[in-house]
Amino acid sequence: MDDLIRLVGPERAVEVFGLRLVGVNADTGKKLLLTLVFLPLAWLGYRVAYELARRLTDPRRPERPSFWAKQILRLATAILVLLGVLSIWFDDPARLATALGLVTAGLAFALQKVVTAVAGYFVILRGKTFNVGDRIVMGGVRGDVIALGFTQTTIMEMGQPPGAQGDDPAMWVEARQYTGRIVTVSNARIFDDPVYNYTRDFPYIWEEVRLPVPFTADPKRAESILLDAVRKHATPKDELAAEAAQELARRYFMRPSDVSPRVYWRLTDNWLEMTARFVVQTHGIRDAKDAISRDLLAGLNAAGIGIASSTLEITGLPPLRLADNAIDHNGAQAQSKQNARR
Q1: In CATH terms, are 5-110 and 204-303 the same topology?
Q2: Contact between 174 and 160 (Cβ < 8 Å)
Q3: Would you say the C-alpha torsion 11, 14, 18, 23 has a positive or negative sign?
Q4: What angle is formed at CA 183 by the lines to CA 175 and CA 158, rounded to 5 degrees?
Q5: 67-118 pLDDT tens trace
């Protein structure tokens, strides 16, 4: 074994089968061994700290504390690993500065998108763009944030309401419910596209239900039925909606808005369009609109009020004359020949 691998020279370079390996000596071997021991220990320390932080969080609302604990621990571990590896391999500050300059120049040229994505990660954390569990639209993807990495954001995709069905990508779910697809979006997209957040500072959304009412129906009665159905399933005014709206106005200098359900009228050529506007929690919109539609239909049927539509109804037909199918075929041919001779 001593003949196969030897340490030769004053620098104790490694020689294998009589061939000296360039840059490999006993010193670099020790540094490599220390690195291989240090990295698993750092990863093990991260896992232990993360499990401890997860157990100390509130089990009723574990998403936000767990998210921030994970981000802090990941950043701390990354900094610790970087400093540890640099301390092991570079004992001369001059060599370290030279190596960092070369690495930085290479990364800036070859990994521009990766560097931009990492920069986007820090902007997301510092700018408080979104947290895990928030419902957002980022890079054309709608859904809930389920994970955030140094370069990518992972989103549980949701469907699109009928008004947005024409947007890309094509969607088969016509409501804000999960499609089952998990989409990863580069963090660099925050520099190119706007990020829509449905839940961060105001976990409610204004929704609308439209009802076409015939001109022959009682509009006051139809409005009362629509308003009763909306009030039953919308978020009550005395709950968090009003407080959240006030906080939103205080933080962002927004004018306070009325969160009480209200019905607006609009005249069209065919009917009177009533639009009910109300506030509902972001999660569970389809359930609320489904319950409103059921109660609304039951109330309209009980009041004898129909829903206007552009369907055509045929109330009469012109008289029809049916020919006898038992006409003599030979006689018809003879008559046609006589007509031809004439």
Answers
A1: no
A2: yes
A3: negative
A4: 10
A5: 667 777 877 888 888 778 777 766 666 655 666 666 666 666 667 788 888 8
For 144-173, write each residue's pLDDT tens digit: 998 888 889 999 998 877 666 566 666 667
Return the sign of the alpha-carbon dihedral for residues 285, 290, 293, 294. negative
Instruction: Please name the residues in contact with 331: beta carbons below 8 A apart, sequence gap of 6 or more.
Output: none
Does residue 98 contact residue 164 with C-beta atoms inside 8 Å?
Answer: no
Whether 191 and 116 have beta carbons less than 8 Å apart is answered as yes
Domain at 5-110, CATH from 1.10.357, 3.30.70, 1.10.287, 1.10.8: 1.10.287
**pTM, full prediction:** 0.60
The mean pLDDT of the chain is 77
Q: In the chain, where are the structural domains located?
A: 5-110, 135-197, 204-303
Pick the closest to residue 55 from 76, 69, 74, 43 (CA basis).
69
Domain 204-303 sits in CATH at 3.30.70.100
CA-CA distance, 295 to 287, in Å (whole number)? Answer: 13
Place of tokens 């009665």: 221
